[in-house]
Amino acid sequence: MSTYAFIVGGVLPGIAALTFIIGMTYRFRVWSRTVQPGKMTLFPASDNTIKAVLAEAVFFPGLFRGDRVLWMFAWIFHATLALVFLGHLRVFTGLVDRILAAMGLSADAIAAMSNTVGGIAGVVLLATGIMLLIRRVTLQRAKEISGLPDFFALLLIIAIILTGNMMRFGPHFELEQTRVWARSLITFSPAVPQNGLFLTHALLAIVLIMYIPFSKILHFGGIFFTQSLIKRR
Amino acid sequence: MRRKSIQFADGKSYTLDEHGFLDPPEQWDEPFAEGMARLQGIFDGLTEEHWNIIRYLRNKFLEEHTVPVVVYACADNNIRLNKLKELFPTGYHRGACRIAGINYEFMYNSNIWLTYESHKILEAEQKLTPAGFLEDFDQWNERFAHLMANEWNLPHGLTDKHWEVIKYLRDYYRVHKNIPTVYETCRINNLSLDELIELFPAGYRRGACKAAGLPFFG
Amino acid sequence: MSNKEKVENAVAAINKGPKALKLYMEICAKCGTCASVCPVYYGSPEKKFNPSVRSDLIRAVYKKQCTHSGKILGKLAGAREFDERELEQWVEDFYSCTGCRRCATYCPFGIDNSVITRKGRAILNTLGLTPEVMKKVVEISLKTGNTDGASPKAFMAAIEFLEEEMRDEHGVDIKVPVDVEGADYFYVPPSGDVLVNIEATTGVAKVFHALGMSDRWTMSSKCFDGANYGLFTGDDNSMKEDNKMYVEEAKRLRIKTMLMGECGHAHRIMKFMMEPGKWWGDLPFTITNCLQWTAEHIRAGRLQFDKSKNSMPVTYHDPCNFGRSCNIVEEPRIILHATCMDFREMHPNRGENWCCGGGAGLSAMDTIHEFRMEVTGKKKMEQIRATGAKYVAAACSNCKRQLIQLMEYHKEDIAVGGVHDMLSRSILIDGKAAEHVDYEHQAVETSSQ
User: Searching chain C, which residue's CA lies closest to the CA of residue B86?
Assistant: First the structure.
């Protein structure tokens, strides 16, 4: 095993996981402990805070009313991202497979479904990601507020999607290897797949995971805090 | 700041601030009040009732260095709000105070809420064509002529000579249902072409005929 | 301490709270939605008017001061060292936000840029950089209890005049009680509604009279102006000091209900900041708004109107503080529907309404008159024109000042006033609506003779 593969596949995942968990815990703790003198009111408001915050986090209704085009891209992007996240969970753990099997699907059917759904998701994700990037570069009001961190985050995610798609649509890559790899990580005896594309994909993903607690991608956690502060009383 | 200059009777000119208020206020004199009053829709000259309010405001302004809010001005002069509005159609602040020569900056600095008052924009009650001409010849009245003439910033407002021409145009149209040529109008009224244009700076058709309530044929 | 240190310390303090502000510093995704719903940016899509750019004035300094990434990566993380020369820009930019909170309604994360604006103004205030007008209004309020600087004696003269006007209109005595201890209701209008545009106050007085409750309410000769500019300058101390006068006066008068007038930010401070925040502990009285109070009596069918007195098309402008911050949206409509023949909605409305362009104290600043007319008020002007209304009712003195100037500037013959103004003109007292001597009509008739 090359040193590069060992570092990317054996050492960094642990560091990334630690950084992510500690970073996010720290963030959430600080956020929940920071004082807020009085609630803020913003109407129209629903009576049910939890329901409203969940609706906002899942469907972005505020954005829907404010900027419908962005809503379309953003919602498809985030929803597909969630789907792809589930897909990776399936690859690593096989848990989703077992649930689907229990529902009476054959192994072939599951694989076919994964290929179709995963394939479409990959393409959609890439397309919307690029659309968001184009929007950021061309739309005046977005362009003038975009800084390096914004482009960095977006380009990083697009790069991850791109390498992921290349693995699916490029030369055949045996998914079983990743399941073995994931299991090996838990036992601290890394068995890293020797595939250049896979290693790049993994490296980029690790960078992203470590970057989250220190960047604006925090918004996926912050939304629950800010939205619960307002609109309800 | 965009300042502008305005000229009233006797050829004396005054400088106004961007809001159309006299500035510096030392320029104020009675002819200014008369001239500005015409621009504020007071066409028949300032009456003693007007002068009472104007003198009151000037006294407050010069002696006490204040501008009373509208409610005090009414209470002190013992007149109703509606009466004040009738005396000064463009309002207390934009009408009365402007005529009294109180400058905007002073008013604003002494109380920002002073400008907090609706006023009527002077408009003809008659129906106008999109080009601003009177739709119905018979709807005409003198107030309409004043309002049309307002835009020309005439130093003395409409003079007897103006009224002569307007009266001639109306009589002619009533009989012939047509507009006399500009030469005919000059000849009958003993005017040179230049004198006519001086009287009606907006021109013959768009000035004199418009103020006389004649329609604009093509 | 230099100005630079003062600013940096003030920004660094955000780390300790309030929570909302701290979150706003950290989670903005820079999507630009705020700009697409902002009245200022709509009026002039320039970079400096983009709400996110304005908020970045503080956000970048915060990142430099409080975040590891900002300290290490600097510009790469969107952090920036504060430069004292920026202060001039700060004043201009933070006083070009109308604090309407429209961005918060549409932002996917609920980021309320008005909170950041207020923080920016608070910092400027500690440096003495608050615009002169604002400083003066706060100063006069604290000294005299009202933004007009009127003395109790002057107030009494105004009230006397009000009563005379009403006697003139209805032929009966309609009282405006002042300084009555033990009354049920304590009416706190903006002072403009007593001294300049009196119909809102005569409207309230007439409602009390029509209900036979003339002896159950009072005004105060010392505290007759709910306006509180501390909210706009970001100065919490003067905001609370001003507020305290009113709470103490209410306690002294032993009233049961504080009836706030047609003033959005005054109601918001009393009802949504002072009361729940328990600034002065538990209160021996409740707080409500005259719009809610009147609407309730209209709903119950206790008031009668002659709608023909208001035959022109009327529209309602939702003041941001009533619409978005206090949820008083249906009540003014109940009043206007009951008192006007032709009520028209402008769109969008209620909590989604566009700001008049004079919010957060801007309408008091004639130094930026042209900016307010051309930029911040642009959308409102279009909205109002689209309704074809001849009267715009706005339950807010700041909105009224801005709207009146807008109509004059854009040469629109549209009157601007309050909600109770419409009520005052049409309410039936002993079966009769107010009679106005039509001086103007008389004048026209004589001139055409």
Answer: C440
